[in-house]
Amino acid sequence: MPALWIPSNELxxxxxxxxxxxxxxxxxxxxxxxxxxxxxxxxxxxxASPYNIGVLRANADHEGFRHDVTEIIWDDxxxxxxxxxxRDLVLEFDDAEVDPDEGCPNWFVAVCKENLEDxxxxxxxxxxxxxxxxxxxxxxxxxxxxxxQLYQKLLQQEKDVLFSNSDVDAFIYGVRRFPGLKRVTITSxxxxxxxxxxxxxxxxxxxxxxxxxxxxxxxxAWSDEQVQRQIHTWKEATDSHKNQWRAFRNVTxxxxxxxxxxxxxxxxVNHLPAGLDCEQEHKDLxxxxxxxxxxxxxxxxxxxxxxxxxxxxxxxDTTAFIPLMTILPVKEWATLRSFELSGFQVKQSDSLxxxxxxxxxxxxxxxxxxDFLDGNWHGLLNAIRETLYWHQQDKEPRPKLMVGITESxxxxxxxxxxxxxxxxxxxxxxxxxxxDVYSFLE
Length: 442
Prior knowledge:
Distance between the termini: 56 Å
Structural class: alpha/beta
Number of helices: 16
């Protein structure tokens, strides 16, 4: 059957199945695949992996592909070669001791078993979460001895890249060769969970089915006690400490020193409690209180979308409260259409005043994992309905509000998002989804 007779949705299924090995071959053999846009090469991945570097350079050298690339996603999480990071799991073992049954170091066995326990703990009966489905496809687990052999190979490849700086060279090459490059995303969360990565990079796609390995977490998290003990100023930090943010250091330096068309720099932690600095809250959050952030954001007069996420709410420090209007110059954004606030300490009255100040152009609002220093979700939703009168607006311009809360077991990576329940209360006759006492779900 000629390819042009195949429906587009079936072509997409075929293409997704063969993507890892046949992308360029398909395009060269059948222009119909290319014309139908089945290969979305608008972004490329980079990390300290020869797989990712090779694919980026191949796209940069391809006259057809390089003009389509608008984003580089740099994975700033590196594989771990130091068992000390897992001493809490293998305290009773010698780091160098080999498990006689598995044929690899005890620490590696402990971490891989922890991965499987986490995988099972993340499954919710009756709900087909993407990572549940992905985990189900990994039904044939690789023996840990084989996983260890491959992991050692990956580690050595990464060390070679870091020694040669070939990932940095590839980024510079990409900046020069991708004329449509608009966005650079730096993330420490690429590997996600076992069998459920955040991004399907060429490196991750190369893993054999059932491959189990220590999931790199990238940037240090505030919850890491070792990190809290080592907090010090940037000037006092060693290069080894600074290179935990290696991609960020290189990206900002390269973009500052070279001509480019990049207009967006994104730091993506996918709601993990990590970032560029673990000590700002201990210094009364000077970057927020100085007014510099507000002044900078005020220059973005044509702001269409803003996602503002922090981990302040997890600190439960009442002195960290900052009125939203002192950080976010919402009155300067006359064309704003979507807004998200996550992981922030708030007060009910201040939140209501901020929502009231949003321009009429806003269509989507997400409020997630907020820590109320006074008031609660129940009171905020009631106040929105009773004082903002969104329900009296025409249906088309009404803002859609979504609320995110932690689930009862407070498992990392889990949350509950309410959109229909909130919408039904604000615009219909459904009851408030939260009760009045502890703001729990009704």
